[in-house]
């Protein structure tokens, strides 16, 4: 039995993918309706889930949410002991994740920091990229499970490295999306039909996984969330903290972060991050 906590858009996709690959899945979620809607057995608490499962996966919005589930009354730490493993798929703050390594290992359990690179559609197909940090023995033990939903899997042994890599990756992601959105709006202002414009960008300078994933959303202006403006905004704030800790400036990242901050301020934080197109249009 595999435990799963965090049934947002990405977590729901991963948990369903695990089940489709033959894994028995038990869940817990703060919002009870999300847990029961998936049809999986539902644990009464994180502690009960940890006691019932040797391995639990977390897929939460941010580090405060992870810490809360670990340390709350009837939280995960109360159910942990030697032989238990926590795989944290959340995009964590690079400093907070070090505390999670420590909290879990202090009670004799194993912690694998393993943020997900990719969103709902690749997760449902088993095609996300995963970067893990922690003990190599833990990584090798968990790798067959990770292969159930991950296509490209990397291991960076030093704690915190995977979280830092995820933040760096999301600078590319957010910057590409903002540039593609601005190009789309500019092309339309020139009288070029949007579908034709995106087709040309897709084989020209805009060719990327980001455009391939978001072309239809831009055409339809369907911004139902796969990866939200609020999430990329949060990640770029963490990236700024990382640069500050290294005494390094950030140039393009600063502008990109402010664009997504503007989307959040406009009340569009829960839309897919491709909706930044609205800002330029």
From TrEMBL:
6-phosphogluconate dehydrogenase NADP-binding domain location: 2-154
Name used for this protein in its record: NAD(P)-dependent oxidoreductase
InterPro entries with a match to the protein in the record: 6-PGluconate_DH-like_C_sf, 6PGD_dom2, 6PGDH_NADP-bd, HIBADH-like_NADP-bd, HIBADH-related, HIBADH-related_NP60_sf, NAD(P)-bd_dom_sf
Keyword Kinase on entry: no
Keyword NAD among record annotations: yes
Pfam families associated with the record: NAD_binding_11, NAD_binding_2
The species this protein was found in: Sulfurospirillum tamanense
Spans traversing the lipid bilayer: none
Residues annotated as domain 3-hydroxyisobutyrate dehydrogenase-like NAD-binding: 160-279
Keywords associated with the record: NAD, Oxidoreductase
